[in-house]
Amino acid sequence: MPRKNLGYCTVVAVDPGTTTGLLVVSIDPRWLKGQGPATWEGLGAAVRFKAAYQVGRYPKRFDIDTGRSTKIDTPEGLDEEMLPVVAAGQPLMGDSEFDGRGRRDQSFYAIMRGDPSPMYGRADLLMVDAGEVLQVRQIAGLLDNFAEAALVIEDFTLRTQDQDRETLSPARLRLAIQTEEILHGVGRVPFLQQPAEAMRTATDDRLKRANLYFRGMQHATDAARHAAKFFRDCRADETMRAQAFPRHFQSWGD
Length: 254
Fold this sequence. Notes:
Blueprint: E1 9-15, E2 19-27, H1 29-32, H2 40-46, E3 47-56, E4 60-63, E5 68-71, H3 75-82, H4 105-113, H5 127-144, E6 150-154, H6 169-184, E7 191-193, H7 195-201, H8 204-209, H9 218-236, H10 238-244, H11 246-249
Parallel strand pairs: 1-6, 6-7
Antiparallel strand pairs: 1-2, 2-3, 3-4, 4-5
C-alpha cells in the first residue's frame, strides 16, 4: 500500500548559468493525485512553501512577504539570506574545516580567495570557473537540506556557433551539479527539461496566476517555469509521479 502522512512533495528546480536561478517549492501531494482543480490557480493553491534565489553573478533572494527581490552583495550575505532555508548544520559558508557532509570548508574557500597552499600545487582559477565552482558548492549545500526533493534542472542544447566559456556555462554547471549530487549527495539523478518546453507551458501570465512569478528575478522565474511544468506533468503521469516522489506514490507491498 502507498505510504501515508509523509508531508509535502518538494522540488528543487535549477536554471543554471553564470547566474543560476533556484526555486524550492513544496506542494500538497493530493493535488498531484488529481484532487482540486488542474488550473494554474489550483496549482498555486496547492503550494505550501516556496523560496527563490539567484546565485552566481547577480545573487538575489525573493522576499515572499513584500513581493520584492533583494540583491545580495557578498557570498557571506548569501549564506545569511539563505539561513531560513538551509539548516544550521549545513552552512554554505563556514569557519569549520569540515561541514556537515564532510566537505572541507576552509580549504575550499582558501582556493576561492586565491590563497597559496603550502601542501598542494595550484594554478590560477579563471574567474568564470571559480564562480561556477562556488555555485556548485552553494547548490550542494541547499540540496543536502532537501534530500527527499525531486531535482529538476534545465537542460541545454547549443544552438549557436558562439562557444565561449560563458555561453557553455549552463552545460558545465548542469553536469557539475549532477556529478556532485551523485558522488557526494544522496544520489538523485535529476529530471532534465528543455527550456523551450517550460517557456511554452509556464508563461509569465500562467506563473502569475499560480503565484510563482518572481518579479526582478528572471533566472529564478525560469526555474519556476520548470517546477510548474514538472508538477503538472507529475499530476498527469502516474509513473512519473512515482519516480519523482517514491516515498509518497510507490507501492511498498502489504
